[in-house]
Amino acid sequence: MFSIVSRDERWSLGSPDILHDRRLTHGEATLLGSEIVATDAVDRELLDLSEQEMSAARSTVVGGQARLEARIVATARRTPASVITESVITLSAGALSVVTSPAHADADRERLLRIAAREIDQSAHAHGIPMIWKNGSASVLLHEAAGHPAEHGHAAIRWPGWLSVRDEPSFEFDDAGRPVKAVDLLRGDRPAAMRRSSFADVPLPRLSNVVVRHDGAPFEAPATHLDILLIAGGRYDPLTATVSIFVAAADLVEDGVARGVRPFVIRESRERIASAIRGARGEPERYPGVICSTEGQEIFVGSHAPEILVVF
Amino acid sequence: MAETYRKRGSIVRYENGVFVRVRESGEAVEDGMLFRCAPAPGGSDAPGVDDGELRRFVGRVQTASADVAIERLIVTEGQAIHEFAGRSWTEKTRRVHLSLVKHDRRVLIDEDTYDTTAIDEIAPPFAKMGRERPAPPVLRLAPRVMAPLTRSLIGVVPPNVGLHQRAGGMDGKGNPILDSVGPEWPNWYRPSYRLRPLRMAFNLVATCSVTEVNEDLPRAIALLAPPQGLVLDVLCVEGDEVYPTSLRIIRIDAISEPTRRYPYGPGVWAGEGEVAT
């Protein structure tokens, strides 16, 4: 048996804050052989827990002065093994957005506003210029290039020996009530956690928390390079093994001077991405921003990476 | 004044090997700027769905697709009772989404009936598909290719082509769907109680001043990817040759009378098209 309660609110923030949408969803699902039987029955404890989550998350975003769009999703879910709560806050300024939590909402709002305030007067494309993936954004590149192929059970390819990309769930039991463990995505290990977006969805092996690490591959920033700051989205086509990354915010840095670059798209095979990764530095940094959609099921995936140098 | 909408229903969905049976009931309220929705009592009274035909259809799809691989098969059957502004109406829905793959290509098939004709027509040529070629300068688009393209024409429709809504059925506020030429569409689309209703064209039809399509032209029989505006990746048949091609439509020369309804948004009726690239 799996039960879930989900609360979803959309706000226009500023002066005043305006609530546009408020949604409550609840239900339970039972797996009977290859059949899932689901109803919208309510679990009262989860109903209360989700309200506590929503209330706490809401208090971190309303009341500020900045004009932003906000979506807050607070969920409480129960499996035979555990009860898990989660709050996911998406803050948007035009085409830019961050995905954050109550604990990081203030810092991520400031980061979003700082990035949104940059002047954009440059164009760039993915080839011929070194890219430094900052703010943990390399976790999105490797989510697509290593994580999704592992979900699909695709064979491992050759990656730099100093690179590690693991899925490390932050919970003990998945949405099917099974214990989970960390897996090595570069070795092609399938994510251990079965996850579902709602009671009416089929649980699928999905990424939970992508952590990129390195071991002794330092680099010096080239005099001319792109700093990758925010990603609008990513996609992996399992049929062509092609990765698409939609870069929302990047700076062209020339001799220490940074100028904003218009959004652009990187579209490469995962082998090309593996061979383009040249170095890494620093500790893994939390990237504010991955809502992953597979089979129409949107779930939050934690994402952490050090600064990574990539040259296509 | 607040408007309240209620829906209760059941759906059976086959999704890549798993059957999902859902029964639920919900209420949505639009109150000025605020939209709110939540489950409501009555789910246990929702009409049930007999999934026998769905299960047989899944088996038939697997047989009909024998020459190629099924990447994704999602079949849904639903039944719902809607209530709004003192009106009550029922709705039955069917939806089939199928993607077939060969090497690094996928064919997309979307239907609102349990009919394997499309698979019978597409799978054998897809299985013997050759290398990609440049698009022919003029070609025919099968109705199932014209259908997803039709919504892309809104706002960019050329002077020799018209778009209109065909009457039939009920909208998301319980009003009859009327004939309309837009651009202010009279009806409301509400695919779920969890979504705000939007004014949209139902049963959208594209018509052209010329309805006779040259049957000697190469024919795009299926989509290989969702349309990107007027850019299409299609599976093309030219004599005995079958090949994938990518094309940008620069002109629509003819559209035959619509023959079938397809489940894109609140429905599209499509006929065969003749286009220049």
Describe this structure in words.
The complex is a heterodimer of chains A (312) and B (277). Chain A is of the alpha+beta class and 312 residues long. Chain A has 2 domains: 2-116, no CATH class; 120-310, no CATH class. In chain A, 16% of the residues lie in helices and 47% in strands. Chain A has helices spanning 44-61, 105-116, 138-151, 270-276; strands spanning 2-13, 18-32, 35-39, 68-78, 83-93, 96-100, 120-122, 131-133, 163-167, 183-184, 194-195, 204-205, 209-214, 224-237, 242-254, 257-261, 264-269, 277-286, 291-294, 297-300, 302-310. In chain A, a hairpin with a 4-residue loop joins strand 4 (68-78) and strand 5 (83-93). The mean pLDDT of chain A is 95. Chain B has 277 residues and is mainly beta. Chain B contains 3 helices and 18 strands. Chain B has helices at residues 52-64, 117-127, 143-150, and strands at 3-15, 18-31, 34-39, 69-84, 87-102, 105-111, 138-141, 161-165, 188-189, 198-199, 204-208, 219-223, 231-238, 241-248, 251-255, 260-262, 268-270, 273-276. A 6-stranded antiparallel sheet of chain B has the order 3-2-1-4-5-6, with helices on one face. Chain B has a 6-stranded mixed sheet with strand order 14-13-12-7-18-15. Chain B is globular, with a radius of gyration of 20 Å. The model of chain B has no long low-confidence stretch (mean pLDDT 94). The A-B interface holds A 18-27, 34-42, 199-202, 239-240, 295 and B 15-26, 33-39, 43-44, 71, 101, 104-106, 194, 196.
